[in-house]
Write a structure and sequence with these properties.
homodimer; 474 residues; alpha/beta; Arc Repressor Mutant, subunit A; Aspartate Aminotransferase, domain 2; Aspartate Aminotransferase, domain 1; 3 domains; eight-stranded mixed β-sheet; four-stranded antiparallel β-sheet; 14 helices; elongated
Chain lengths: 474, 474
């Protein structure tokens, strides 16, 4: 027997929105009524003729709507017994808990971020227009796992000119950010039989996790004032992951003797050096030291990115590989996501070729140089704090004096003021008994916001160290 | 003793390009001379005073260049014994073999590709300008692993309106193409204990490989004229991967009874249905059947992409997930590449919100509808060929009559004419004794190129089948 259909007319009428057509409006109304439980499972629907009359629609419209909903699974039609409502879950059965997106802190002194307020919007837009206007249609079709040839050609020239990298375009693989690239490289190495990796200690903990997750056994490569202690490498490690130009987080470059020792290690053991040149564009006291890759292109993977120059949102990075690794890494890229999106690659190639990228980097370098000087000047007033590293990059490591304020206390005080930075502890492989400190980034804030961020930092330090808050901001 | 330095002046002079400054030019010349072997390892360099005199440079310039190259590892400086050339590999030790990029065939009838010559360049550019002009700087900073909220909000509305998908933005995860999304989903399912997956047979072989590579044991889910035979699912499968709206490659929709059976299987066994709605925008004879997800949002993952509407180069796709899968899939995305690039997401969100995306899809639908009719009209003249599937999508499956031309022979004939399409064989899990056929895509060519592509196909078919070449193109 049909269930009670009374009241349906009002319900359906209420939600009958015919802006998209009568049939569409009826379908939507029926779907909603079924989902909300107003038309329960098993309910027999009126005949098409009956409902058409009730709603002032043609019988064909109702019939078509019933057919559509039967196809979609909302209704069941059995010959001889009419159309009834199928088992359908009521409405949305509980939404997933909200995953909050990243929030920008009030004072952003996190290391490793550039000033995104200085993103070259006009240059990017102009390059996009050039690329889209002159694009052959194929650029919107399937891409290349290794990356667009236009970008690889532009990078081969740029990296040779600015970083002393020795490469041809066919040795470059484009990835959706260095994080992805590192994962693909590690996956290819482990698939090829590699087992043990040396990783700088302290070093970037997220990248250490990537190396470990790929299947490597990670051994610590200790870092001192001359960079990673390459003399501690043995024949056991298949690969050594380093930041030779500007060690993360200590900020010291790998000294010439150790660069030589590292290359000798790679040659004699067949080990691979992975050179993360994460902020190689930024050296403030002298010309940057060329990439290690230029001295041993057959044993070094060179990794670079636009994340510190343009912004991480673009997800564009590159690896320059020894020849035997090009195919395995390209295959890993294809297996991961086929290829990196094309438009961003072409726009970046255009910016590099037209030197707009150089101009942007040069302006950024001047800005960050001033910011670093200002930071060091201010913290010099805090007794016991020691600033490490050469004038370079987007952050400075400040180590804390023994017996002074604790790192976690300082981080908590910063957080309470809306000030974001990082502690040194989590960057040690095993933090027990190791130095404590703060990594202060000077790249992220806008030019306007930077002085207030410094003031906030100095206020926290003065409170914690019990001294004067340093000189006020400019 | 110093090695012979004679001739060095000429060599260095020849390559001394001082456009970038004297010191830089000297450094480049020395690097090149060392790499090319003109300055061999161990060679003692002239004193800074001597070289400065030879080249007409200041002594400070030469000294600075020596220092720079020592830092970079090209030179070795030992107190008391001067500066000598270090061990550096000569030039580039053999470049990697060239990995050819994708080439567009002369006649492109590959299935699953849209006409990229119709990419909405002006609309995309206008949306890019709006996005970049109004962007808060944070959009260039770190993104969200789940995808930009702007795009998830736009998609929740769009998918509800056009595909009957029931979702809120917090159930959507944005990925860099469906291929990546499928890999991430499978990885998360396997990590959660899933072991056996049912995959349509025939079905997309590249996607079947993704499922298998993630660690699933793949079982075949046979397909007949009413779609996948869902009655053959048992309690063993943790997940079933289907194309319910337009089965790939047969082109049939899953019939209402089997849609119900599939949902019942999912509810009773706890199995997950993965609905690949790869070309759900294109139905030509009626309104599209709504997504299966709308009937069982708690048991169905809905997958969509812009690859068939705008182009695969954009690498933008989405998954609508049951609540319990949002966190594991988002974590898998973060581990893979942190997040998908931001600008493309914001531009797509703008296109959807301003309905430019709808307009583009509607125009494309009319175009492909005409093309499909033209294709079927032409191949109807070839005796024994059977066209399958409903009027939908971007391809048609033509099966070959027993005793007629062989699939591999036809594919070879096509290749010789520069005509690209696909064979059915590789889409079977086990091709032995299964139907042979051609998958003919009608999306990829430009409007201008399509008639010639059809002519080429019909010529091949006429040659192979020994009949008349069908009617000539319009």
């Amino acid at each position: 027997m049909p269930k009670d259909w009374s009241g349906s007319r009002l319900d359906l009428h209420l939600s009958l929105d015919t802006a998209g057509g009568r049939r569409s409006g009826l379908e939507s109304a029926l779907r909603a009524a079924i989902r909300e439980g107003r038309l329960p499972a098993g309910a027999l629907l009126p005949s098409t003729r009956g409902l058409a009359g009730e709603l002032g629609l043609s019988r064909g419209t109702v019939s078509a709507a019933y057919g559509q909903l039967a196809e979609e699974g909302y209704l069941t039609t059995r010959p001889g017994s009419g159309t009834s409502v199928a088992e359908v879950p009521r409405d949305l059965p509980g939404t997933a808990r909200h995953l909050p997106g990243p929030r920008t802190p009030r004072h952003d002194l996190r290391p490793g971020l550039p000033d995104v307020a200085a993103f070259p919007v006009r240059a990017w837009l102009a390059a996009t227009r050039r690329v889209l206007t002159h694009a052959r249609p194929e650029v919107f079709g399937a891409g290349e796992p290794q990356g667009r040839i236009e970008l690889r050609v532009a990078l081969a020239g740029y990296l040779g000119r600015t970083r002393g990298v020795v490469t041809t375009p066919d040795r470059i693989v484009i990835t959706s950010g260095h994080y992805q690239g590192l994962g693909l490289l590690c996956g290819a190495l482990v698939a090829g039989g590699a087992r043990v990796a040396a990783v700088e200690d302290p070093g970037h903990n997220a990248f250490r996790d990537v190396v470990r997750r790929a299947g490597f056994t990670v051994v610590a490569l200790p870092v001192d004032a001359r960079g990673a202690r390459t003399g501690e490498l043995t024949g056991r490690e298949a690969a050594a992951f380093l930041t030779p130009s500007h060690q993360y987080p200590t900020g010291v470059p790998l000294c010439p003797g150790r660069r030589r020792a590292l290359c000798a290690w790679a040659r004699s053991t067949g080990g691979l050096v992975v050179e993360d040149d994460y902020d190689g564009e930024y050296r403030y006291d002298r010309r940057p030291v060329g990439a290690l890759q230029g001295v041993a292109p057959d044993r070094v993977v060179y990794c670079g990115t636009v994340s510190k120059t343009l912004g991480p949102a673009l997800r564009l990075a590159w690896m320059v590989l020894p020849p035997q690794l090009v195919e395995p890494v390209t295959r890993a890229k294809r297996h991961a996501d086929l290829y990196t999106e094309t438009l961003g690659q072409l726009v970046l190639a255009d910016l590099i070729t037209t030197h707009a990228y150089d101009r942007h980097v040069r302006a950024a370098r001047l800005r960050y140089r001033r910011r670093r000087a200002l930071l060091l000047d201010r913290v010099a007033a805090v007794p016991g704090l020691v600033a490490h590293g050469v004038p370079a990059g987007l952050h400075t490591l400040l180590t804390l004096p023994p017996g002074g304020p604790a790192e976690d206390d300082l981080l908590a005080r910063c957080a309470r003021r809306g000030l974001a930075l990082r502690g040194l502890t989590e960057l040690h492989h095993d933090p027990a008994g190791r130095a404590r400190g703060l990594l202060v980034g000077f790249g992220a804030p806008s030019e306007r916001a930077y002085p207030a961020a410094l003031d906030a930092l100095l206020t926290v330090l003065a409170d914690a160290f019990g001294g004067a808050p340093g000189r006020p901001g400019p």
